[in-house]
Amino acid sequence: MTNFVDLWVYLSGSPLLWLTTTLIAYLAADAISAACGRHPLANPVLIAVTFVSIIVVATGTPFSGYFAGAQFVHFLLGPATVALAVPLVRYLPQVRRALVPMLVALIAGSVTAIVCAVWLAEAFGLDRAAILALAPKSATAAIAMGIAEKMGGDPALTAVLTILTGITGAIIVTPLMNALRLRNYAARGFAAGLTSHGIGTARAFQVDPLAGTFAGIALGLNGLLTALLVPLLLPWLLN
Amino acid sequence: MLAAIAALLVCQLTGEAVVRAVGLPFPGPVVGMILLFVLMLARAPLPGALGNTADGLLQHLSLLFVPAGVGVVQHLELLSGAGLRLLAVVVLTTLITLTVTALVFAALARLLHVDDLAPGKPETEERS
Fold first, then answer.
1. What is d(CA A122, CA A130) in angstroms, rounded to the nearest whole number?
2. Minimal CB count within 10 Å: which of A64, A127, B27, B46?
3. B22, B34, B65, B72, best to mutate vs chain A, most A CBs in 10 Å
4. What is the rounded CA–CA span in Å between residue A38 and residue A30?
5. What pLDDT does residue B118 have?
6. pLDDT value, residue B128
7. SS3 letters across chain A
8. What SS3 class is residue B55?
9. B14 CA to chain A: closest CA distance, Å?
């Protein structure tokens, strides 16, 4: 028993344990998602996060301990964002042709995300801190946190709401678009990326490469537009 | 593959440097993506494996959000009190934003006769 404790103390102190746990949990989640025919409810992010969280909580590991190992995976978000340029160039003719619908949908979607969040939050009687955290939540987490912080909101709460928006959108986008009988995969992907940033983009790439490409564009453009619009719209919406 | 990873990192690093130097309000990797896009359009000599490496990263984009997702679970106490109402706003806003964005895009695409973008088939050959 003491041997086991010694081994645990050693392993839990090194990045290897949590990096491996994260990878294995994702592989298991991805296999489950594939076995379910990529059913939207079998979202690999949600399943893997559930697995890892159960292990982290059950072993009483602090988040900093977990992140010391998981940071290597987290770090790859940067290069992956840069890599979005590759499908963008590959599908450039399609993107060029869809430029007008794309830009109008960008403005419509970005304004809708911000205005709806603020109005609904007010209708539900939420306080100012919650409204500031909700307003930028369709932007990618790094941008959303930056906006909330600049406006005097709580970046940690913003991060939580942003990730939840990502997972929610990734799960409901396919059934919603099917219910709307929308067959335009550029439009479907663009909506997923605009609303649910990287997690929506991951879902779009899972469904179709063209949808993924438009999701990646929407993720980038809406990040920029939300950073511009929230400081402009919020004072007007809040009085 | 190593050269392709180096190319991605150089773009990201340049992006971070530009963001810091100019004080732009968005993350370095986004600027890095724009830089790589411009380099590819300019047909700059880039590593041949760039296409495959990018595809590999993007295919497993979901994996990269797992650490942040675990962070959220650890901070769920932030939702206490107003939790249900916050979740309701998240779900409703997501539903409305998805619908508005997709419908506006699809309606305009139909109006302008650009709604025949075949899914899954790039019109151009790989440039690298």
1. 10
2. A64
3. B65
4. 9
5. 64
6. 41
7. CHHHHHHHHHHHCCHHHHHHHHHHHHHHHHHHHHHCCCCCCCCHHHHHHHHHHHHHHHCCCCHHHHHHHHHHHHHCHHHHHHHCHHHHHHCHHHHHHCHHHHHHHHHHHHHHHHHHHHHHHHHCCCCHHHHHHHCCCCCCHHHHHHHHHHCCCCHHHHHHHHHHHHHHHHHHHHHHHHHCCCCCHHHHHHHHHHHHHHHHHHHHHHHCHHHHHHHHHHHHHHHHHHHHHHHHHHHHHCC
8. helix
9. 11
- Residue A77: which of B16, B50, B5, B65 has the closest Cα? B65
Task: Assess B23–A contact: CB distance below 8 Å, yes or no.
Answer: no
**How do residues A10-32 score in pLDDT, each as one tens digit?**
777 778 899 999 999 999 999 99
Contact A193, A169 (CB under 8 A): no
* Residues of chain A with C-beta less than 8 angstroms from the C-beta of B70: 49, 52-53, 56, 63, 66, 70
Chain-chain contact of A165 with B89 (C-beta, under 8 angstroms) = no
Q: What is this model's ipTM?
A: 0.88
pLDDT of residue A159: 87
Work out the average pLDDT over B59-86: 84
Chain B residue closest in CA terms to A189: B102
pTM score: 0.86
Coil vs helix vs strand at B42: coil
Whole-angstrom CA distances from A171 to A174, A187, A212, B46, B91 are: 7, 17, 15, 36, 11
Instruction: Spell out which residues of chain A touch residue B82, defining contact as CB-CB under 8 Å.
Output: 126-127, 130
Contact A52, B70 (CB under 8 A): yes
Residues of B in contact with A54 (CB under 8 A): none
- Tell whether A70 is within 8 A of chain B (Cβ): yes
Q: Tell me the residue type at A39.
A: H
Chain A residues within an 8 Å CB radius of B127: 89-90
Q: Is A212 on the interface with B (CB under 8 A)?
A: yes
